[in-house]
Amino acid sequence: MTKELEKQFISEFHDHQNIIHKVCSIYTSDKESHNDLFQEITIQLWKAYPTFRGDSKLSTWMYRVGLNTAITLFRKSKRQVQTQDFDAVLYRIKSTEYDPTQEEQLSVMYKAIQQLSDIDKALIFLYLEDKNYKEISETMGISEVNARVKMNRIKTRLKTILNP
Amino acid sequence: MDELELLKKDWQQRKQVYPNLSHTDIYNLLHKKSSSIVKWIFIIGIAEFIFWGVLNLFIPDRIFDIYDQLHLKKILSYSYIFHYTVSIVFLYLFYNNHKAIRVTDSTNNLMKNIIKTRKTVNFYVYYNIGLYVILSVVFNIVLFSDVDLLLQVMTPEKLNIDQSKFFNMFLITQIIVLVVMCGLLYLYYRIIYGILLRKLNKNYNELESLE
C-alpha cells in the first residue's frame, strides 16, 4: 500500500475517530479494553481501506467495520477483568444545564446498555447514531421488519431494567 | 420513551469527551499486529492441514516393510494418491472461503463466512478420521483373510503366544488407538471452539433466531 494512501487514510480517520471511540465505549467497560478494541478496529479499517470505493459514506463504512470487529473479530485479552468503571461514566460530559436527576438517569441508562447482548448493543448504537431501519437492517444483515421487532424488544428490555 | 430520547441527545453531544489521537498516534496503530479471530482461524486451519498432511511421514519405515510383506503396499499407495488429491481440494476450498471473509460485509454475512471457513477445516478432520477408520477396516479384512501370513509377519519366532490371544490383542490395540485419537480430537475441538468461537456462535444464533 502506498504512502499516499496511508496519508489519506490517516487524515480521514483522524476526522472520524469519534465513531470508533463510540463503538468501543458501547462494547467495553474499562479503558484498557477500550484501547485494545480501538486498535483492532483501526487495523481492520486500514486493511479494508483499499477496497473502500466511496460509493457509501465513509462514516457508514466505518460503522460497519467497527461493529463487525467488535461483535465478531475482536477477542478480549485475558488480562482484562470486568470492572464497573464504564467509560461513559468516566468521560461524562458536563452539559451546560447540569441536572443531577438527569445525569443519574443517563448513568443508569448507560449501565443498562452494558448489560445487553452484543447484537442488541449494535442495534442500540445505530439507533443512538440516528440511523434509519433500512441502514440498520443492511448493516446487520437482517430484514427491516426484524430490525424493528428487535429494536422494540430492546427498548422494552431497557425499560424493565430502568423501572423494575 | 423519554429516557431513550434523552440518551440519544446526550450521545450525540459526546464529541469532545474522547481522547483525540494525533496523526502520529494513528500511524503507529496501523503498524500494530491484528489479533482478530479470523487471523487465528486461518493460522489454526493451516496448522491442521499441515498436521494431517505430514502425519504419515512419521510412520517408521519398519511398518512399511510389514505392509509390504502383507501385500498391503498397493492399497496404501492408492490411498495416498487419493488422500493428497482430496487434501488439495480441501485446502483450495479453505483458501477460497477464507478469502470471502470481508469485514465490510453485513454482520450476518461476515459471521456466515467465518463459520463456513471453519467448517471446511472440520470436514477435513472428519474426512481424515473417516479415512483412517475405512483403511483400518480394509486392512483388517485383508490381514484376517490370510491368518498364517499375519502371524508369520507380526510375531517373531521367539515370541510364543497363543493365536486367539494374539488376535484379541491385535484388535483391542487398534480400538484403543482409535478411541484415544478421537478423545484427543474431541478435547482439542472443545478448546478451539471454547476459546475462539463461543462468542461468534452465540451472536450468530441470536441473529439467525430473528430471521
Compose a concise summary of this entry:
The complex is a heterodimer of chains A (164) and B (211). In chain A, 71% of the residues lie in helices and 0% in strands.
Main sheet properties of chain A? none
The CATH homologous superfamily of the largest domain in chain A corresponds to RNA polymerase sigma factor, region 2, helix turn helix motif
The CATH topology assignment of the largest domain in chain A is Rna Polymerase Sigma Factor, Chain: A
Which two chains touch over the largest interface?
A: A-B, 64 and 52 residues
Number of domains of chain B: 1
Structure description:
The complex is a heterodimer of chains A (164) and B (211). By secondary structure, chain A is mostly helical. Chain A is 71% helix and 0% strand. Chain A has eight helices and no strands. Chain A has helices at 3-27, 31-48, 58-73, 87-90, 100-114, 118-128, 133-140, 144-162. In chain A, helix 1 (3-27) crosses helix 3, helix 3 runs antiparallel to helix 6 and helix 7 (133-140) crosses helix 8. Residues 80-97 of chain A have low confidence and may be disordered. Chain B is mostly helical and 211 residues long. Chain B has one domain (45-210). The longest helix of chain B is centred in the last third of the chain and has 48 residues, at 163-210. At the A-B interface, helix 1, helix 2, helix 3, helix 5 and helix 6 of A face helix 1, helix 2, helix 3, helix 6 and helix 8 of B.
